[in-house]
Each structure stands twice: as C-alpha cells, then as structure tokens.
Amino acid sequence: PAALSFYDSAPLASTLDTLIDWDLLNTGPVRLSVGAVDVESGNFRYFDTTTERLDARHIMASGALPPGLPPVEIDGRWYWDGGIVSNTPLTHVLDHQSAEMLVFQVDLFSAAADRPKTIMDVMAREKEIRFSSRTRQVSAERLKLRKEREAIRTLIAKLPPELRDDPEVAALAQEADEMPVSLVHLIYRANAWEGGARDFEFSARTMREHWTAGRAAVAETMARSRLVASNILDGRTAAFDLTRG
Question: What are the angstrom distances between the C-alpha of 85 and each of 89, 112, 214, 229, 230?
C-alpha cells in the first residue's frame, strides 16, 4: 500500500482523533456527510452521521485523492476521494433538504481558464476541467430543474380553484413543491506557478496562499450578504459567484 501514493497519510488519523470530538460530531445538531469512491467497484458512497458513526477513516477517505494520498480501508473496502466521480455533494445536500437553504460550494479548481501554452499548462488545465466540470454540470442541471419547478408552481397558482383541486394538478403541485436555495460559489483561481502538481502539492507556502484566498473569498461574499439572502426571502432559487476573477 505504501507504493500507491506520494504521501503517507497515516499520521493524520491521530491528528484528527486529537482535534475532533467524535461523539459531538456524530450526535450533535450538525449533520455531516462525506463522499468517497470504492477503488475496486468504482461506486460512489456517502458516509453520513444520520445513518452511521463516522471516525477518522471516513474523513481521510473523503480526501484521499490519488496519486498524492493513499486509499483508506473501511470495513474491508478501500476508498479514494469522492472527487474522482463527483467533486460536489450538492445533489446529496439538496436531496435531503428540509428547510430554506443557503449553500456555499467550494470549488478548488476553476472551470474557466486561459488556453494552455505549454505542456505543463496542458497538465494543469486537464485537471481543472476534470475536477470542475462535473461540479458545474451538477449545479447547472439542479438549478434548471428547480427553475422548471418554480415555473410550474407559478402556473398552478394562476389556475382557478376547480382546476387546482384536480387530482392530476395536485399531484403535479406536490412534485414541484420545494423550498428555496441560494447557491454561492467560492471558486479558487490558481496561481500561474502552481501548474499540474496542484492536486498533490501541499507545501506550507501553497497551503498558506490557499487559506488566504479562501478567507478573502468568504469576506467578499459576505459583504454582499443581503443579495445572497434575498432569494431565500422571496422563495426563489439562484446561484452566485461574487468573487473577482
């Protein structure tokens, strides 16, 4: 197993055990879901505190992106980072929505970028497209579906009472019923020097720059919080990218 990655992530287990109150995480008021992909079957799986008890293995599996990090064994199966299949849990989040929701989706790879000019640019661009495209696809498909349901609800509201009471209309109304969502994209725009190693290059400098960029993106977004929250108040669904770039 040690030959399957550039890094050894074993020490991370004890770090997580030291920093995380697993009883609070598993029984507290905040639900946690993490995704991973089975190395042998290729199937995607969510580990969720509402259905099972999570520990360091599940957190490590959800971030075990090859070739940088090794697969993690859970109950006899080996798992890699779920981003190999889908780099966003948006579908899982919306499928379990129970109230109005403000969603912050963090994209570590930007879908849009300049045309590559060197072979190293090609390697970097390929990874950006691979890890960001499904995020964009899932988000676009979900927003399109919600807009269609929103149009159905608007139309049904205009019908006379005798038509709204029709069983087929009532069934359609039930299918179209959903609560509003504001989806905020926080997209990391890579520095030119990062190149094709950005999915496994974890130097101190790189991590500090990533953290700084994340804090700046959150601050810029929250400075326009009224806009982000407006669609929840009026019952609509919308997506926002309020960071520069």
Answer: 11, 20, 24, 31, 33
